[in-house]
Automatic annotation (TrEMBL):
This is C2H2-type domain-containing protein. It comes from Meganyctiphanes norvegica. It comes from the Eukaryota. Residues 1-24, 25-52, 53-80, 81-108 form the C2H2-type domain. Keywords: DNA-binding, Metal-binding, Nucleus, Repeat, Transcription, Transcription regulation, Zinc, Zinc-finger. GO terms for molecular function: DNA-binding transcription factor activity, RNA polymerase II-specific; RNA polymerase II cis-regulatory region sequence-specific DNA binding; zinc ion binding. One of its GO terms (biological process) is negative regulation of DNA-templated transcription. Belongs to the krueppel C2H2-type zinc-finger protein family. Its main location: nucleus.
Length: 120
């Protein structure tokens, strides 16, 4: 049905909606459509390269405060889990295990609409 690929199961879930749900919010810069206005608003920032939330501990920037706060836990969590292949750190072991699929290529999830496989 399509050639989309994703790294997270949540992205796959959102993708599946594009096969079945009408997307009333359309980007006036490209062909993307969205089920929620907030998703469109966040998407529009990608066209302006607007990343207003910057981490004070590193040079990463984020589109919204939620993502920044989630990222900040990497710097403050003393029990971070480190990926030995790329030095990324994770708050818990399950997130590290999911991340490792990027390096191994394991894709255990399959889209029921288009047979694509995904790591999460």
């Amino acid at each position: 049905m399509c050639d989309e690929t994703f790294t997270q199961e949540s992205e796959l879930d959102c993708h599946l909606q594009t096969h079945t749900v009408e997307n009333p919010y359309k980007c006036n810069q490209c062909d993307n459509t969205f089920t929620q206005k907030s998703d469109l608003d966040n998407h529009l920032k990608t066209h302006t390269r607007e990343n207003p939330y910057q981490c004070s501990n590193c040079d990463q920037v984020f589109l919204d405060n939620y993502e920044l706060l989630r990222h900040m836990k990497i710097h403050t969590d003393k029990n971070s889990y480190l990926c030995r292949q790329c030095d990324k750190t994770f708050k818990n072991k399950s997130n590290l295990d999911i991340h490792k699929r990027v390096h191994t290529g394991v894709k255990p999830y399959q889209c029921s609409q288009c047979d694509k496989t995904f790591t999460q």
